[in-house]
Amino acid sequence: xxxxxxxxxxxxxxxxxxxxxxxxxxxxxxxxxxxxxxxxxxxxxxxxxxxxxxxxxxxxxxxxxxxxxxxxxxxxxxxxxxxxxxxxxxxxxxxxxxxxxxxxxxxxxxxxxxxxxxxxxxxxxxxxxxxxxxxxxxxxxxxxxxxxxxxxxxxxxxxxxxxxxxxxxxxxxxxxxxxxxxxxxxxxxxxxxxxxxxxxxxxxxxxxxxxxxxxxxxxxxxxxxxxxxxxxxxxxxxxxxxxxxxxxxxxxxxxxxxxxxxxxxx
Length: 266
Hints:
Layout: H1 17-57, H2 75-78, H3 82-87, E1 91-96, E2 103-107, E3 131-132, E4 144-148, H4 167-172, E5 175-180, E6 186-196, H5 216-228, E7 244-250, E8 257-265
Parallel strand pairs: 4-7
Antiparallel strand pairs: 1-2, 1-5, 3-4, 5-6, 6-8, 7-8
């Protein structure tokens, strides 16, 4: 009688120390990335929830008084910012682009760094909150108001501004609403362009320094440079004396790249 010999179990090949280290590193990177992304989008969700709560405090003013300079109605009450102003007096308005994710309070500090990584309550926030350039003065008329906001991959803050690189998106969302503590304002988009923040470059366009034009030539120079860099022609040409609004955000490609939207007050 013959018996079939059983196959001997093969010994598992011992992993080389280098392979083991690479495997551990790869696993750590994967887990770290997963945790980072989960936290990133969790924070975005928190931001949306916080802003929604702030929006509930803003009561729409009656059309009969909103933005018409009615002195019988205190400015903060007229545009519904009284409750928000009591929470944080740094608020100067609210910016909205209908049909997009841009719908946030706008802050202003004594510099352009404070709200880069802080929320409405002045607590640390990766996405920060939109803020008006510290050199702007809403109590007087200036040529250009500049509002900065982060271009977050989650879409919060000014993440949707990158979509304006396509003309179709512009035609569907051509108007920006910026309601201040005293007025409701509508702005029609004039130009959308890309700029590289490189002061040492002779072709650098310091759009962020254009606050108040003293002459028609200074105003026209700003517009000519903006339109020369524009992704497309909107057919709108502001004139000296018009009031502009500029939105600025990062392009998420380089540290110096910016996507800029310039609009004219209607």
